[in-house]
Fold each of these.
Amino acid sequence: GAWLGMLGGGQLGRMFTHAAQALGYKVCVLDPDQDSPAGTVADRHLCAGYTDDAALVAMAQQCAAVTTEFENVPAQALDRLEQLGAFVAPRANCVSIAQNRIAEKKFFAACAPKTGVSPAPHWVIEHQADIDQLPADLLPGILKTARMGYDGKGQARVTTREELAAAWKAMQHVPCVLEQMLPLAYEVSVLAARAADGSTATWPLAENVHRDGILFSTVMPSSSVSPDVADKARAAAAIVTGEMQYVGVLAIEFFVLKDGTLVANEMAPRPHNSGHITMDACETSQFEQQVRATARLPLGSTRQHSAGKMLNVLGDVWYEFGLEREPAWDAVVGHAGAKLHLYGKADARPGRKMGHVNCVGASPDEAAAAFEHAAVTLGITL
Ligand code: ATP
Ligand code: MG
Ligand code: MG
């Protein structure tokens, strides 16, 4: 069979690999970790750094097409693979935008005349003078590093210019963005896919709840969002992928403000934790769609056939049960509609994403009941 390449060996790469293998592909994973979740299920594991040239040459020789699951994959690795003749989706320029909040906000703002959706009011902080010149109405705000932040890391909430200066110093004066603190009603995301021929598809809106900065649960379709806001967000996601000439699966996070305004927060150039529910609630999962886009197959239907609610399983669950034994998976999967997905990670640490439970049903209430059962069974307080 044909080979697909995957840069990154985490759980997103693992679920991609499973989807690719189901469609008859073999997968070659590049990841420096010997025991990575994707590397251990791949048909070939290149155990090397993302810019290791011998590994990139080996991948390009084996794979006609390559994709990524790792948001911070060096753009130079994607460029190099393309130069070696591989079809690379998404391309380096798209990944670069998503890796830098300054570029990302600039891009969202440039798309706003078409999407009708803007980024949060913000100010780039690269020099001390930027703090002095900050418009006063952007405070209180959240200072975010331009690069590498995730799960709320690399952020500080500030109320005054003095606090902002101190927070920026604590971040070693790296390039940052100060965002106005917005009155959020709830958070949603849209998973979008775009094929090389320009066709696009979006899934229903996902509504996300975070705990300690980490995604806790996702409901699909969002029960809070109005149909017109949902349409606007899905259309915006499709426009954004088109404007970037993006190929692959892209996630966009939006805030919905108390007055109903949609705000574009950030994007991820890959499948996303909030899209895991598509594995069991939709005709085509985000991972199968990434396989299709990478392999230049037609995109699959994103129709949702079951109501869904996803529960993230973090390493904390093992501490509830005592580290010497596994959580009660049998009781979890014993409930109708509970679909367990574990990532094969050996060491459970607090905050580490170990798996998720997709809870599905004929109605949102049924999915919610399965969700509640899973959470209670795993000792997760609701
Ligand atoms: P992720 O793990 O999703 O990549 P991240 O670390 O990149 O997270 P953001 O998504 O930008 O960070 O912010 C984390 C959370 O902080 C958001 O989900 C939201 O709850 C809150 N937040 C971020 N920006 C704002 C804002 N401008 N106003 C109010 N709340 C905000
Ligand atoms: Mg982020
Ligand atoms: Mg986020």
Amino acid sequence: SSYRDELRRGMAFGEFSVHYQPVCNLVNGQLAGVEALMRWQRSDGSWVRPDIFIAAAEAEGMIVQLTRHLLQLIAKDCASWKVPAGFHIGINVAADHLQHEDFVKDIRGFSQNIAHLLPTITLELTERSLISEGDLVAHRLAELRSEGIRVAIDDFGTGHCSLTYLQTFPLDYLKIDKSFVNAIESADGETPILDTIIQLAHRLALQVVAEGIETPLQMEYLKNHGVVFIQGFYYARPLSSAALMVWIEQNP
Ligand code: G
Ligand code: G
Ligand code: G
Ligand code: NA
Ligand code: MN
């Protein structure tokens, strides 16, 4: 199809780039790592929204190629990074890639390419991406986890899955979707669904990352409820690789 050709051309002409959104550790107030978010700027200067081109790549059977391209772009960016050992790099992984025969190989290759940073790579998986081939995927994730890769469940609470995958898949982090953070109205009030998700995560010994924090009040609320990691415009927007390095120097 033509969208497939557009994606191929975009990759060939270097139209894709990666933005990195900082994640804050509320316990020590320091930068814990980043989530990699893909961007596409066409040759005419216009930007294609990531939700549009990611969905199109999935529909057109191109998401594996596009994610491999992303991993290459990140590795290139990382060549000039100065970050502490253990720095987290979150990668969004789609269902097709998890089920692809070369998935483990692709992640290992990426890990080797950025090994000089001694990073902690975290694979961000949505509930939707875990619906099919559960046994196969669980086995692969277990294998990668034994090699130091971490696994996060992303956009938690927004998918169509039941809670069964919380006991089926080996997980390290639960990322609370921004719609739940949005529901916070005061620092000392109650937000029943959000509070229950946080308790569930703690009971399962999962680390919690809350997404979409836009106000100091939301940050305060989450801190008071034992959430360790936050991500959102209030702390930092997604930044280009160069902007991230400047941001790190200015926010020690
Ligand atoms: O980055 P926002 O900044 O607009 O991203 C929109 C959506 O696109 C999010 O749901 C995000 O998870 C998804 N997304 C961004 N980059 C990637 C990527 O590299 N791979 C996948 N699978 N999804 C991505
Ligand atoms: O990176 P951020 O989540 O703020 O981007 C919001 C939207 O703006 C993205 O979904 C993307 O389509 C577009 N975008 C991303 N980076 C840039 C940029 O550097 N310049 C412009 N004009 N648009 C961008
Ligand atoms: O992978 P995921 O779907 O969680 O992607 C994160 C999305 O959330 C990206 O589109 C990113 O640009 C966006 N985002 C990050 N921080 C904020 C925020 O504080 N507010 C809003 N509205 N969106 C955010
Ligand atoms: Na994500
Ligand atoms: Mn998310």
